[in-house]
Amino acid sequence: MQPYPALRERLDRGERVVLDGPMGSELVRHGVRWADNGFRTNADQVTALHQEYLDAGADVLRTNTFQLNRRVYQNVFRDTAHMRHIGAPDLDARVPRIIGRAVEVARAARDRAGRLEVPIAGVMSPLEHCFRPDLAPSFEEALPEHTEIARLLAQAGVDFLLLESMNTVREAQAALRAAQLTGLPVWVSFVVGSDGRVLSGEPIPQLAADAMLVNCAPPEDIQGALAQAPWLSGAYPHIGRFDPPSWKFEFFPQFTCTESWPAERYAAAARAWNVQLVGGCCGITPEHIKALKS
Amino acid sequence: MTYQSVKAKLQNGKTVILDGAIGTEILRREVTWADHQLRKRPDVVRAIHADYLAAGADVISTNTFQLTRRAFRQHFKDDAHMRHIGAPDLETRWADLLRAGVTLAAEARAAAGLEHPVAIAGAMTTLEWCFRPDLAPSPAEAEAEYREIAEVFADAGADLLLVETVSSVQEAVAAARAARAIGIPFWIAFVPNERGALFSGESLAMAAQSLAPLEPDVLLLNCAPPDDVRAGIEQLRPYWQKPIGAYPHIGRFNPPEWLFTDEYPPTRYLEEARAWRVQVVGGCCGTTPEHIELLAQRL
Tell me, which fold does domain B2-298 have in CATH? Predict the structure, then answer.
């Protein structure tokens, strides 16, 4: 049986499923240069981290494609003409190439570990910074951009698509529509605020996705969201404090002060969430995933 | 006092050498540049200043490009969100780092034991992304933010402000007003496009006329390839009688880092600089102490 239908059967039987942990914050913690999502200089470490999560017992692997879209490059130039004038020669081709590479290394890690039953989730995320719902594009603008990303992930061979850290309902709807055009199953996950709502302030909607989750917020906020939206079936909070660097403007996944959430405490909290899908967002390590699994 | 001697050089028609790139030089030394590295690798930052001092720079600039309160705040939904999920010191880190930037430059200057005076320029730039004038805050907001930055620089001991990579007249005027309010000397550097106009579409003639009453000592062009900087100089020259400066970038922007190319080795860069016929010369991204050394020896 294909990996996703097998996972779906497990979920239908009421089993708990463990997702992996974060790529970005864990790679940065190990000194990886956060350029092209780490692929510019440290592709081997990306592969190795996927393997660590598999060894820790993750039932799902997520691609290292968070906040990877054309805007990440375009936003730091005046316009496309300026990008071609002073930018590195291949910036136009960067996103398609890295998305393909990200899926390839996730699949390679799965194959090498002999864990062929593990589905690979193609990660999609907000087109602007995940913590800035005020910058989110309109549905009409977002749809074609998400459609390209979904198509690239699908063509590279992911088993399903996971919309992470969505910060407005309208962009989530656009990304969901785009993802569904591939014919693959889709999960949608929202970033929430301390009020347990979507970071935009909207209530968490019930969307026509195969699963709905919350992520990208501290455990207490995640718990608040779960209490308000019983249709959520998964959660993967971040732990510690977001510590952005002094210069870089796009997303930079550095989290500090994570000591207050050692693996055992995290696993105990996760048990109380009472959802089928659990994993970890920024600050989480393979140790935490191992604790969740056991 | 050190600035007075730089100003005297300018008034006497002499060439003033500005330093070269710091951010890309940090990268070239195999250290990551997502952070300014002012606290994590002060040794590297100090060593780069030392290299530019040894190369013959009359003015060294602090490693504080785009380092503002806003740079931290804009990673979050709002201030409450920053306090809720952000690292504990994010509200004050900008000022701590600006002070650290001046301190490292001052330490390098003291350690160099030079006989000629060298001025430290507190480097500040656009409040939003340097190539995006469309994102610039309102003039009143900008002036208030520039003023708090200028205050920290003046208090930490910067000799002048280098307002660099400016892409609209509105931002330049806001920064100039802030500097004047503090009473610190200031220079303003604009990013030119291929035709020598600002990214906002405004002309350098308009920039010069708007700034003249605020009395910057030098207007410069930076953060663009040599050809564009040259185009900017030609646009500015008829409208600006005081000193003009230039410090283009070389290589290619490879977000968030830099792609070094061999298009402009020091000898070719020197030839370009001769053709600019300006009084202040230095280097932006991609330039190295070797570039500055040749400028200092030959110009």
Answer: TIM Barrel (3.20.20)
Alpha helices in A15-79 (DSSP H): 24-29, 39-56, 70-74
What are B272-291's pLDDT values in tens digits?
999 999 999 999 999 999 99
Instruction: Please report how the helices B266-276 and B289-298 are oriented relative to each other, as an axis angle in degrees rounded to 10.
Output: 50
Residues of A in contact with B132 (CB under 8 A): 75-76, 78
With cut-offs at 50, 70 and 90, classify the pLDDT of residue B44. very high
Homologous superfamily assigned to A3-293: Homocysteine-binding-like domain (3.20.20.330)
Average confidence (pLDDT) over B189-216? 98
How does pLDDT run across A92-145, given as a tens digit for each residue? Answer: 999 999 999 999 999 999 999 999 999 999 999 999 999 999 999 999 999 999
B166: helix, coil or strand? strand
Report whether B98 contacts B152 (CB < 8 A). yes
Q: What is the pTM of this model?
A: 0.95
- Contacting residues of B for A73, CB less than 8 Å apart: 255
Interface test with B, best of A242, A246, A257 (most B CBs within 10 A): A246
| Exposure string over B273-294, b if 16+ CB within 10 A, otherwise e | beebebbbbbbbbbbbbebbbb
Domain ranges of chain A: 3-293
- In 3D space, the residue among B271, B267, B264 whose CA is nearest the CA of residue B286 turns out to be B264
Is-contact A127 A177, C-beta < 8 A?
no
